[in-house]
Design goal:
The protein has 99 residues and is an all-beta fold. It has no helices and eight strands.
Protein backbone atom coordinates (compact mmCIF):
# COMPACT_ATOMS: atom_id res chain seq x y z
CA UNK A 1 0.00 0.00 0.00
CA UNK A 2 1.29 3.47 -0.84
CA UNK A 3 0.63 6.51 1.32
CA UNK A 4 -0.57 9.60 -0.53
CA UNK A 5 -0.49 13.28 0.30
CA UNK A 6 -2.22 16.31 -1.15
CA UNK A 7 -0.07 19.44 -1.42
CA UNK A 8 -1.57 22.89 -1.91
CA UNK A 9 1.19 24.71 -3.83
CA UNK A 10 1.41 27.33 -6.55
CA UNK A 11 2.03 31.03 -6.89
CA UNK A 12 3.76 32.18 -3.69
CA UNK A 13 3.03 28.95 -1.79
CA UNK A 14 5.26 25.88 -1.61
CA UNK A 15 5.49 22.75 0.54
CA UNK A 16 8.12 21.44 2.94
CA UNK A 17 9.00 17.77 3.45
CA UNK A 18 11.25 17.08 6.43
CA UNK A 19 12.94 13.68 6.14
CA UNK A 20 13.81 12.05 9.46
CA UNK A 21 14.98 8.74 10.84
CA UNK A 22 12.79 6.20 12.63
CA UNK A 23 13.92 7.61 15.99
CA UNK A 24 11.72 10.66 15.32
CA UNK A 25 8.61 8.66 14.41
CA UNK A 26 5.51 10.25 15.95
CA UNK A 27 7.54 13.22 17.25
CA UNK A 28 6.29 16.74 16.60
CA UNK A 29 8.48 19.02 14.46
CA UNK A 30 7.93 22.77 14.33
CA UNK A 31 8.81 25.53 11.86
CA UNK A 32 8.58 29.31 12.17
CA UNK A 33 8.88 32.08 9.61
CA UNK A 34 12.26 33.82 9.54
CA UNK A 35 15.77 32.96 10.66
CA UNK A 36 16.05 32.24 14.37
CA UNK A 37 18.93 30.89 16.42
CA UNK A 38 17.36 30.82 19.86
CA UNK A 39 13.98 30.04 21.33
CA UNK A 40 11.55 32.94 21.22
CA UNK A 41 8.15 32.16 22.74
CA UNK A 42 6.60 35.11 20.87
CA UNK A 43 7.41 33.63 17.44
CA UNK A 44 4.37 31.79 16.00
CA UNK A 45 5.11 28.22 14.92
CA UNK A 46 3.46 25.59 12.77
CA UNK A 47 3.85 21.95 13.66
CA UNK A 48 3.45 18.54 12.15
CA UNK A 49 4.23 14.98 13.21
CA UNK A 50 6.83 12.66 11.68
CA UNK A 51 4.95 9.69 10.25
CA UNK A 52 6.14 6.45 8.67
CA UNK A 53 5.09 6.61 5.01
CA UNK A 54 5.05 3.45 2.93
CA UNK A 55 5.65 3.23 -0.81
CA UNK A 56 7.77 1.43 -3.35
CA UNK A 57 8.63 -1.32 -0.90
CA UNK A 58 10.25 1.05 1.59
CA UNK A 59 9.39 3.23 4.56
CA UNK A 60 10.24 6.94 4.78
CA UNK A 61 9.83 8.94 7.98
CA UNK A 62 8.63 12.43 7.10
CA UNK A 63 6.84 15.46 8.46
CA UNK A 64 5.00 17.26 5.67
CA UNK A 65 3.93 20.89 5.66
CA UNK A 66 1.61 20.90 2.60
CA UNK A 67 1.07 24.64 2.16
CA UNK A 68 3.79 27.10 3.25
CA UNK A 69 4.09 30.72 2.03
CA UNK A 70 7.41 31.38 0.25
CA UNK A 71 10.24 32.64 2.46
CA UNK A 72 12.83 31.55 5.01
CA UNK A 73 11.82 29.26 7.87
CA UNK A 74 13.58 27.94 10.95
CA UNK A 75 13.20 24.22 11.57
CA UNK A 76 13.11 23.40 15.28
CA UNK A 77 14.30 20.15 16.86
CA UNK A 78 11.92 18.27 19.18
CA UNK A 79 13.98 19.58 22.14
CA UNK A 80 13.12 23.16 21.07
CA UNK A 81 16.54 24.16 19.69
CA UNK A 82 17.02 25.54 16.17
CA UNK A 83 18.09 22.88 13.65
CA UNK A 84 18.39 24.76 10.34
CA UNK A 85 16.95 27.45 8.11
CA UNK A 86 15.21 26.38 4.90
CA UNK A 87 13.94 28.52 2.04
CA UNK A 88 10.51 27.75 0.61
CA UNK A 89 9.89 28.70 -3.03
CA UNK A 90 6.39 29.16 -4.43
CA UNK A 91 5.13 26.30 -6.55
CA UNK A 92 7.86 23.91 -5.38
CA UNK A 93 8.43 21.21 -2.79
CA UNK A 94 11.46 21.79 -0.57
CA UNK A 95 13.01 18.71 1.05
CA UNK A 96 15.26 18.91 4.10
CA UNK A 97 16.94 16.04 5.95
CA UNK A 98 16.88 16.19 9.74
CA UNK A 99 19.52 13.50 10.15
Amino acid sequence: MMDTLVLDIGGDVGALVLVAGPELAEQEIEISAGRHTSIDAATPRSHNVVHARHGGGRVAYTAVFPSVPAGDYTVWRPDGSAHATVTIHGGRVTEHHLT
